[in-house]
Amino acid sequence: MTTRDWKNLVLGAVLLGIAALLPLTGDAYAIALGVNIAMYGVLATSWALFSGPTHYISLATAAFFGVGTYVTASGIDVLPYWALPPLAGIIGGILAGIVGLATLRLSGVYFVIFTLGLAEMIRQIVTWRQNATGHKGSYVLTDLTENHIYWQLLGVAALVYLAGWAIGRSRLGFALRIIGDDEQVASHLGINTAVSKVALFIVPGAVAAIVGAMIAPRYIYIEPSTAFTPMLSFQVVIMAMLGGTGRLWGPIVGVIPFTLLWEVISVSFPNQTTLLLGLCFLLIVYLLPNGFVGLFQKIHARALSKEAYQ
Amino acid sequence: MKRRTALKAAVAASAIVWAGAAFAADPIIVGAVAPKTGGLAGGSVVTHWPNIQLWAGEVNARGGLNVGGEMRLVEVIEYDDQTNPAETIKAITRLATQDNADIILAPYSTGLNIAAAPIMDKLGFPQITSTAATDQVGELSKQFPNMYFLLGSSSALANGAVNVMAEMRDKGEIGSRIAMVNVADAFGIELAAVAKPSFEAAGFEIVYETSYPLGTQDLSPIMKAAKAAEPDAFVAWSYPPDTFGLTEQAMIEDLNVKVFYTAVATAFPAYSAVFGPAAEGVMGIGGVNNGSADFLDYAARHEAATGQKPDYWASGMMYASLQILEQSIEASGTLDMAVINQYIKDHSFETVMGTIDFDENNNNASYWTVGQWQGGEFRGIASTGRDGAVAPVLKNGWK
Amino acid sequence: MDIIITGLLLGGTYALIATGLNLQYGVARIMNLANGEMLVVGGFTAFALYTGAGISPVLTLFIVAPIAYALNWAIYRVMLRPLVKRAKSRGMLEQESILTTFGLSFTMVGLMLWIFGGSYFKYSFLARPFVLFGDNYGLNRIVAFLCAVIICGVLYLWLNHSRAGMAIRAVAVSPESARLVGIDVPKLSAHAFAIGGAVTAMGGAVISTFLTLDASTGVIFTMKALIIVIMGGVGDIRGTIIAALILGVGETLVASLINPGLTLAAAYGMFILILLFRPQGLFGRKPT
């Protein structure tokens, strides 16, 4: 561990600590926004852990999220709540492992559409099961407040950042970066590409399921259409890309402005929300092709070259 | 933005007219959250939003609400929750803390209302739901004492249909073979689960039964199979797109049944606009008293103010929920929500849907359960204690 | 027998939904997530003209096609061409086109909400039985199927037997080599994207005769179209048509013989199986 590593760790811990103070303000609206930011932040960061180095765009977030939600919805009457998010994580991780084994040899757009189809298929099967058993929408009635959910999500965020930091320094992270650059080179170097990819695909799968399990008490009434909404997968991808997937801190830098922008637009223009969101989104794509990370690096590089000339 | 500006303009215009009364008082901020986009937008733009527009326009045209002797205009702030419960919760929080709303209206649909219940409860606003049909009324009102239910329980809605058919069979008008399908979504599943044992208990034979996913693009295999089972009555616990789709398939297959029942959207004016004379005799969920002068007057005002007709089920209930709020505020002379809640529990209200009185579970015990297209109007044929029901007629072909 | 015919009729609908996307993705290399919205625009136009002026949706096709062509051509030139220019690799273009067209789909939904409102759009057109081998079928579905046959047939003949069509196929196979033999790739890509959009909008006009649409339904069609295009193989009209028919018949078989509740699950299941065993699609070439 270098001094720089220690500095980053301490800085991260301090930032998270500050974020954890938000509920103390007692501002319900800020906390509701905070929960959204924390939720998307965790999802986008864990998504980028896998998709950043491998360049595989996964739209399976909604599938794992929905599975997690249903773990809470169906387990809340049987098990104590604290057991459910870890259980969801295990189930999500196993599911991601199976899916990864079966599909990660697909490349490019095939993988994208496959993951999208996966979420839909799981949703259809859950719906059909519910119907076959005459089971209705499920109620998750708990005493958890927004504050509790917020703190839980921050806890997961800390774990995700630690995991990302550890992976980045491990052999696995190194292997994945090579795979992302050139898969053939990687396999020539003796890297078992399939195992590395599957291993990393489990992370966003498990995390999304945990987040789903934690958000369920907030939704209260769980239906397949809300638990498995495909919009979630797209939003996560977009926020992560807006931030930039090349750095661990990239996605959160995308999540915060995007959530706030979304909020401003839906507040000021309730009848044109969709239209304006679309337009803003297009602007972002054209003006920030590599996300905020790219912008930052550009400015940084410019500053460096200026220094060099002086 | 458009609507809000329009309302502000209306506020300004009526402020000039009623300068004497409304000059000094601040407007009452009314918060409204419901889908404008997403899966349920198609229903909420028929049932939910036009009523808010109508009501706010009418209140302001007559100078506002009388709050303790002071006439105050209403200003509506609208948010689109995109049919996403997380957005509903966030928008309600925002209305309460940032916009300082004096009243927040109940959102749209069963799922979104239940998702909003804890936050509404915490904020203390009465949540008078007009588009939530659930069997959990008892549990919900116990947990959230300020949540009220106008539309009835899903059991009663399903059993209403069963009873109508049982009576028709006892009179010898129809046989006892039933084909029943449902959309595989919370609402359809819940109603089908209630209806199946009820049909069997009433001595019906379910000769065909299935479910289909929301968004099914081809319903013809279902209608073919249903027809092959030779039912006397066809019942579908359906959502708007499939209500239209099933009816069209029934016309194509020339499904020969004496009773044809579809659920949500059968009571939409668009239903008879699309199917014309073929809609005659179709039964559906909901209903109104078409003989009631109050309702007819309301329907005319609705059309004049919004350019579209109300539906014949929840529209009137939505407007009634606004009337209940209005009457409670004016009668108690305050915007203190604790007082308003007590007033709602203690009193009965005259609305366009008739007298409404909440029971100990905050439930409106009398509501329409089944209606039928008769002579180009959707008329209530069964209710849990409303006046004005007409006798059901047999479905006679699709011409 | 009636299961097969019902399935084929549904498959015809699916072919209409997916053929346009295949042209856009296979030739112009644009993974168009706003495809479904273009379809709904076509459907709304047919609705507005039928209920407003009594114009038959079949005639509407001839109005919709040129307008959609021009609109999509403009979209390609203004919005997508810059992306193609700045993309360093096909993968990068894919990523960027996903993001851009996702934004575009939002914009289009927003515009439709603004213009048409959010309610359901449905009208009754030829909702009469048509008897074929002793079974009833919706006349509007038969008409839709015929439209699908004509549109896809003309497109197929044109792609295989005209100079412009050959050039377009050459671009689909390899833009680099096409450029070497003197084909104006940017122009043809714009052309292919615009034709794809026109086919999709025509499909929407046809589909609106028997489906209930609203401003937000586009995404359902986009997903179906993506699945069919990938199943059939990118850049191959034949593959798309056959995949569409397989999906139609498969869904109907499941609905009729197993359980209608599982139709969509079956569709995705079929798709996943095909991807696992033939990742390049039924008719696709192995990626090099």
Task: From the structure above, extract its key features.
heterotrimer; A: about 300 residues; mainly alpha; ABC transporter involved in vitamin B12 uptake, BtuC; two-stranded antiparallel sheet; about 80% helix; B: about 400 residues; alpha/beta; Rossmann fold; 7-stranded mixed β-sheet; 3-stranded parallel β-sheet; 15 helices; 16 strands; disordered N terminus
Descriptive report:
The complex is a heterotrimer of chains A (310), B (399) and C (288). Chain A is mainly alpha-helical. Chain A has one domain (3-255): Orthogonal Bundle (ABC transporter involved in vitamin B12 uptake, BtuC). Helices cover 79% and strands 1% of the residues of chain A. Chain A has helices at residues 3-20, 28-54, 61-75, 84-103, 108-132, 146-169, 171-181, 183-188, 193-219, 224-227, 230-243, 250-268, 273-287, 291-309, and strands spanning 138-139, 221-222. Chain A has a two-stranded antiparallel sheet. In chain A, helix 1 (3-20) runs antiparallel to helix 6 and helix 2 packs antiparallel against helix 9. Chain A is globular. Chain B folds into two domains: 2-153 and 291-367, Rossmann fold (3-Layer(aba) Sandwich); 154-290 and 369-383, Rossmann fold, CATH 3.40.50. Chain B has 15 helices and 16 strands. In chain B, the strands form five sheets. In chain B, strands 9-8-10-11-12-15-16 form a seven-stranded mixed sheet, with helices on both faces. A three-stranded parallel sheet of chain B has the order 4-1-5, with helices on both faces. A two-stranded antiparallel sheet of chain B has the order 2-3. In chain B, strand 8, helix 9 (186-201) and strand 9 (205-212) form a beta-alpha-beta unit. The radius of gyration of chain B is 21 Å and the shape is elongated. Chain B starts with a helix and ends in a 16-residue tail after the last strand. In chain B, 63% of the residues are buried. Chain C is mainly alpha-helical. Chain C has a domain at 19-216. Chain C is 75% helix and 3% strand. Chain C is built from eleven helices and two strands. Chain C has a two-stranded antiparallel sheet. In chain C, helix 2 runs antiparallel to helix 3. Chain C starts with a helix and ends in an 11-residue tail after the last helix. The mean pLDDT of chain C is 84. Classes of the chains: A mainly alpha (310), B alpha/beta (399), C mainly alpha (288). Chains A and C meet through helix 5, helix 11 and helix 13 of A and helix 3, helix 4, helix 9 and helix 11 of C.
